[in-house]
Task: structure prediction
Amino acid sequence: MTQATQNTMRAEAIDQFGGPERMALRTLPVPEIAADEVLIRVEAAGVGVWDPFEREGGFARMMGAKPTFPYVLGSDGAGTVAAVGDRVRRFKEGDRVYGFALASPKGGFYAEYAAVKEELVSRVPEKLPTDQAGAMPIDAITALRGLDDTLGLKPGESLLIFGASGGVGHLAVQLAERMGARVFAVASGPDGVALVKRLGADAVIDGHKDDVVAAARAFAPGGIDAALITAGGQDANRALQVVRDGGRVAYPNGVEPEPKARPGMRAQSYDGTPDPQAIEKLNRLIESGPFAVHVSRTFPLEQAPEAHRALEQHYLGKLALRPN
Ligand SMILES: NC(=O)c1ccc[n+]([C@@H]2O[C@H](COP(=O)([O-])OP(=O)(O)OC[C@H]3O[C@@H](n4cnc5c(N)ncnc54)[C@H](OP(=O)(O)O)[C@@H]3O)[C@@H](O)[C@H]2O)c1
Result:
């Protein structure tokens, strides 16, 4: 095993579940890695919309897990390999990698170092900057699992993406275009519309203002084949009217309220669970053309509480922290 150059690190940790004010900068031991783990020196950590739920103890309750404090949040991120366990063969010190550490007992990415199972670590696609790679993993795998496994999207099909300027949505737009679908995107605000147009959607409207049903009927007069819904509520349910009879609808678990599909449509919720096959497929899709992860704000590590508060406001794409 190669060694990290320091024994302690800066980390944003909580001593008990609660509000954003519970997070504070601590000096903690650098996590020790097992034989099948990789130690990542973290340059960018994703701030997920689910992080406040974890901070309040939601995941621990859901999984029936006994949490260990101090507890370091941060379910995805990217950086360089600082050390590898004895059985790790795919990575070496200095490699640029991204990884997944959802509710990991070793702690997450809101820290200078994170220990991650080798199978949940990937090299960063060559042209993707590390700061973008750090904000991408969970939302990108969630986009891919929705489009590929859940919807079984085929070339030439029409696809509605609701919440297209959000974390999952803006990545799904790019992946779906690459899979050969015709994308009808419902984004948030004029800035969201502009972003999603730049990312290559075939048609984009503002879901807070425009008439989704009229625009979708013009786009696909026979109805839309499939839909990926990343935000719940009345607007999403209204948008679902444009899916054709026999069409498919997918939404990640966590979308609230759950979208209401009418009889004759197949609606399915799912999780963006990472595994080596899905990660490999994601990398191949990313590498086959231009791809951008939109990080609208990056906060220094010690501003994690501000980053969590910023999740409540309008922003595009993702938020991130910079631990190193
Ligand atoms: N189960 C899993 O494995 C998994 C994994 C990842 C994510 N998720 C869940 O998936 C959901 C999406 O995640 P995310 O990271 O993409 O969150 P997000 O960035 O908040 O995306 C949702 C987007 O929908 C937009 N939106 C809401 N109402 C809209 C409307 N009427 N018209 C147009 N846009 C609208 C929001 O923008 P405004 O707020 O500006 O309107 C936001 O950009 C969350 O519920 C998350 O918890 C689950």
